[in-house]
Amino acid sequence: MTGAPGTCSACAAPVGASDRFCEGCGGPLFEVPHPIFDRVAIPRPVPLEGACADCGNDAFSDGYCTGCGHRRAAPDRDEAQLGVMALVTDRGLLHSRNEDAAAAGTVTGVPDRPQAFAVVVCDGVSTSGEPQVASAAASTAGVEGMLAKLADAGTTHAAVLAGLGAATTAARDAATGLDPQNAPSCTYTGAAVLAKDQGAVEITVGNVGDSRAYWLPDPPEVPRQLTIDDSVAQELMTAGATPDSELVQRGAHTITRWLGADSDAQPWSDSSVQTLTVTAPGTLLLCSDGLWNYLPDAADIARFCSGVDPAAAARALTDFAIQAGGNDNITVAVIPIGATT
To answer: Where is the PPM-type phosphatase domain (predicted)?
Structure first.
C-alpha cells in the first residue's frame, strides 16, 4: 500500500491493509516495477568547446574558427561502451566525413527476465544527400524500437521487427527539409539479445543493405555470417555466379535495399530477420562494409575477438581496416555472449 495509511495514493479512497488494488480507481496498491533503460550512440555531435585543431585558437562563431576560418571538425574516431558492448566508428582515410552511425541500449527491471540488449550499425549511402542524417536517425530509432518491445516482454524476433519499422520511419523523416530528389539513405543491421533458460542466449538479427552481423563462437566452433547482403553481388551468387567472377566483383557494393524516403514501404525481406539460440560462449559482431571490405570471412574477424576485451577487439579491427586502405567509414560493434561476458 502507498500514500497515507488506509488511503489510495491515486484517488484517496479508503483501502484495507490487505488490499492489493483500490476498489475506487482500480489502481495497484503496491510498487509497480518500471523498466530501466541505458543507451549510447556514436558518432556524437561535434564538440562545441576546445581549441581549433588547425591553429589553436579557442574562439568560434557559428562553428567556424575566428582565427583561421576553418570549420570545427568532428573527431576522426568515436568510441563508446555500454555494459559489455563496445562500439567504434572511424572516418577512415579517404572520406571527408563519417557517414556511419551506431547505437546500443540495454533494458533491465522487466519482471521474470534478465537484462536484454539491442544494438544497431548503419552505413550512410554516399551517393545520397546528407546520408549521415539518415544513419544517425535510423540507428537510434532502431535501438529505441527494440528496447520498447523488449521492455514489454516481447521476443527478440518481435523486437528486431519493431526496430526495423522504427528505423524505416526515422530514415524517411530524416529527409524533411532536404532535397526530395536526393533524400538521405542508409543501410541497417540490428540485433536483439536475450538470455534464456539453462545458459542459452537468443539472438535475432535483421538487416537492410550490406552492413553485416557475424556470430563468432569460441573455438573449436565455426564462425559464420548471420546476415545476407541486399546487393547485386549477392543476387548474382544466389543465381550461381562464383564470388570471384567479374560480375560479382563489379556489383559488390551496389545495394538493392536501403532505408530512406525513396525506399520501399517495407524495405526488408522475409529472409532479412534471422534468429539463433546459442549455448556456448562467443561474440556477436555487427559492422559496416568499411570493415568487411578487408575482412569478409567470419573466421578472419574471429581471430581478433577470441579471448580479447571487446573494446580492444573493436579498436584492433578498425585499425586493421585503416591500415589495409581505409577507403570507407568503418564501424564495429562487439558484444560478448555467454561465459565471455
So the answer is: 84-337
